[in-house]
Amino acid sequence: MNNFVIGSVTMFKPDGTVETANIHVSGDKISAITRGEVTGATVIDGRGKFATPGLVNAHTHASMTLLRSYSDDKALMDWLQKDIWPIEDKMTRHDIYWGAALAAVEMIRGGTTAFADMYGPCMEEVAKVVDESGLRGSLSRGLIGFADGNGERIAGNVELYKNFHGAANGRITVMFGPHAIYTCPPDYLRKVAAEAAKLGAEVHMHMNETQTEIDDCLKAHGKRPFEVVAETGLFDNGTLAAHCVYLSDDEIEIIKRKKIRVAHNPGSNMKLASGIAPVTKLLANGVTVALGTDGASSNNNLDMLEEARLAALLAKVDTLNPLAVPAAQALQMATDFGAQALGLQNVGRLEVGCKADIVLWDMSGVEWQPNYNPVSLLIYAANSAAADTVIVDGKILMQARELKTLDAEKICAEFTACANRLTGKA
Amino acid sequence: MNNFVIGSVTMFKPDGTVETANIHVSGDKISAITRGEVTGATVIDGRGKFATPGLVNAHTHASMTLLRSYSDDKALMDWLQKDIWPIEDKMTRHDIYWGAALAAVEMIRGGTTAFADMYGPCMEEVAKVVDESGLRGSLSRGLIGFADGNGERIAGNVELYKNFHGAANGRITVMFGPHAIYTCPPDYLRKVAAEAAKLGAEVHMHMNETQTEIDDCLKAHGKRPFEVVAETGLFDNGTLAAHCVYLSDDEIEIIKRKKIRVAHNPGSNMKLASGIAPVTKLLANGVTVALGTDGASSNNNLDMLEEARLAALLAKVDTLNPLAVPAAQALQMATDFGAQALGLQNVGRLEVGCKADIVLWDMSGVEWQPNYNPVSLLIYAANSAAADTVIVDGKILMQARELKTLDAEKICAEFTACANRLTGKA
């Protein structure tokens, strides 16, 4: 059983403040937080390190790492329909596995400890990567209604839930993944809602990413997306809604009433020119706003620290208010709110009884000097190469930037072979 | 004399495309670019590396590293007047030196090879840092008209020009640094213009950073800032205008007519909630738009790669056009356009006859896989820790991330002592 102490570490507390303390880990949990000096063989020296909860990537498509830098600076539908979908059609079980494995290496090296993944087919391959890597993953099968004639995809999501929800000491959870209003008609969403309700499963769905999507929905249904989806019952078991760039006041009321958690994706929304989500308005309404990278082909990385920075910077310039989304709030969105968005209990906070999902950031780089405020420095000055040690469920996945669970070299080689075969041009 | 070849390197060409080649360096210049295999003791292995021109930080205040993370998430004038200015008033020659020295370490480690600095007093200390570090610096004394009763500051800028313009094999150049329209009345700007004209010196000035600044100028002068300043003759010898967030069409005409180069500072403009500069409109008008970090206390780092990414992302979401500022253009803004902005000839491009200011980026990180497009990967996926080798004027300042000209440990220690003394809280 894991049993160690991170001694004399600068620690980000759940209330957004910072204190020097010792974090005691027993098994998968934080068992105590103490002050004063600790010694002994099981002490990890925390001096010069900043301990935060692990970062939570609340919306991604891990295996899309295979398509990173394959198509950039394109209009959204050209990108998706001409470049991305034809390659995705060719992906095998093998590709899904190695794509997610590379994503796992990248996430651990950037201080991410949990992620919400929507993709497929073969999400059990991603489950395997979660199991092997030691990460926490909330997995959902991407359900495209138009392409799911006999409901095989829904059936696949049901199987995924039955086989993996709660697996790996609870590190794997499963949601249903209806893709979006423009790929899933209301009747299909009703079917998904019924299956999810039977299992008590939550839902992960793209919502209101672009203005076109809203316009098309209004044309087809005479209502906005949240209104249409709410009527199908899909929001009734708990929902993680990705993007939420364009929202009416009535839709924000639905989000509040249904306790929907939002995954804000500033990097992807900027790169694809989707627009700016009303983050400060959602936060002021008490909505849980988490952060996500989206897939690596529209970002182009899985760097959650960068996403937290973008969230803080974009909210300020969008509202012309430099007080919007201060550094501590951005860090909470990337950790505590992220865990809530994934439906995880006792994750995302450094407090006694919580899961020991911890990142130690190395504060020795020049960009961390002078060190008046480690929260500001992490969010505004550092980059993800400062992630030194990553712990999930009390297990060390990386220490001094050395991976403990994954073989990065082998993964890179297999991954490159997959990319080459898929595109013929890596 | 420097004499070496970077062999078989993936190279960013002035036209925005990429090719594998050998870059030959002789003295301070690129003497040849060849294809095929090269061998020998003077060959730096470029395989797996991406060679770009050195990044140019076209607007910063280097010694403000001392105030990094001292005051964040504040309204601009609270930040400046209550927190920043009182500390700056206490800065000594010693502080200016060590603040700039830490900035130099940070810039080299992030792939920056040249910077335009406006600060003071004691800009000769920054000149010393430029000389010792091997960087290229365009220095200007920050001139505050209201605080320059007997013109000591202008006289200081004149002395700086006479003593340092063209020094260190031309690596140091000097501009005049009138701070802004709200700190320099027109009569004062006329004096600055006259002194600059006598010497043939260029000018580096903050322009149109906030809407308040425009409103106050309209109230005081009945005209917008570029109109007021143009009438003083200040723009007649060549100008680097920082920020340019709010511009009328008439002001864009002045920028074109006076061939003013713009330093866009997306990170600072976002963090301070100043607004979004009309970058695509300026570029469409043929204006040279370079990139800058601004000071580290409003950014909070000197990471030009991050600035290039922000420029690309912000332009897209601002115009709702995913084709705005593609990756290659962002990289050109951070290199070629940056050198032009600093008034440098034959800098900022990897071509024969140009100064050998070169960065080799290590492409081995997982965020660089698969490698379909190194330009996209550098701008959208990598972080500045990928800067492996930095060359300025043919001299290697960093190799395999090891600094060759500066002692980072000593600089950090001296810098921290300065910060402690200034603020009593580092």
Structure description:
The structure is a homodimer of 426-residue chains. With 426 residues, chain A is of the alpha/beta class. Chain A folds into two domains: 3-53 and 354-401, Urease, subunit C, domain 1 (Roll), CATH 2.30.40; 55-341, TIM Barrel (Alpha-Beta Barrel). Helix content of chain A is 38%, strand content 23%. Chain A contains 15 helices and 17 strands. In chain A, the strands form three sheets. In chain A, strands 1, 2, 3, 4, 5, 14, 15, 16 and 17 form a nine-stranded mixed beta sheet that branches. In chain A, a hairpin with a 2-residue loop joins β16 (395-399) and β17. In chain A, α5 (186-199) crosses α7 (225-232). The radius of gyration of chain A is 21 Å and the shape is globular. The mean pLDDT of chain A is 96. At the A-B interface, α2, α9, α11, α14 and α15 of A face α2, α9, α11, α14 and α15 of B.
